[in-house]
Amino acid sequence: MLETRDLTLHYGGSQILNGISMRAERGQVTCVMGTNGVGKTSLMKAISGTHARSGGTLALGGEDVPVLPAHRLAHMGIGYVPQGRMIFPLLTVRENLETGFACLPTGERAVPDRIFEYFPVLKDMENRRGGDLSGGQQQQLAIARALIARPRVLLMDEPTEGIQPNIIQLIGRVIRQLRDEGEMAIILVEQYFDFAFDLADRFYVLSRGSVVLSKDRAETDKAEVQKAFDLNS
Length: 233
Prior knowledge:
Layout: E1 2-11, E2 14-24, E3 29-33, H1 40-48, E4 55-60, E5 63-65, H2 70-76, E6 78-81, H3 93-98, H4 113-118, H5 120-124, H6 135-148, E7 153-157, H7 165-181, E8 185-190, H8 193-199, E9 202-207, E10 210-216, H9 222-231
Parallel strand pairs: 3-8, 3-9, 6-7, 7-8
Antiparallel strand pairs: 1-2, 1-4, 4-5, 9-10
């Protein structure tokens, strides 16, 4: 569904990503792992268009995609749940969800029932302002908002950060359900090792903007992925 080849990214004169090649397939969770500062969020920004890549190629559904702004990539099917959630605090839960309508044809702009099946608390708080929600509730809202646009690829950047254990379990169940439904490729950026390992079908471990391990689950084990993660911490 999505593939990058030799992708690079700069912030001014500093090169952050050094030729990242990766693929994410529909019906799978592709996990990008590594500690702070290795380039995980920069990779998500490059794929989503929130920071233009400097070089390399991005393909979606087998078709090469030029460097485009985030709203154009969103219309093409790239959904982004950013680190820090970035919900609109003064809009209600319902209004936050409706911001996802921008990617849909006019006649299809409705919040599907399955959104509230994934995250029942959002139905209960539909008319509450986003800024009044707890951190865990805001994270659920951020994921739901991305799903409204019916993405072909869902990028999730540190969805467990600062979240209480019961909500982490809920998010894990939703990710598994989305994977099993087989409608999208999921790219999960995560530092919480056990959470990531349990979900992932493919692993990429980054260090200093480069891939140091690239393995399918079937060809590796937890010890190998853990070792690559620890060596580059």
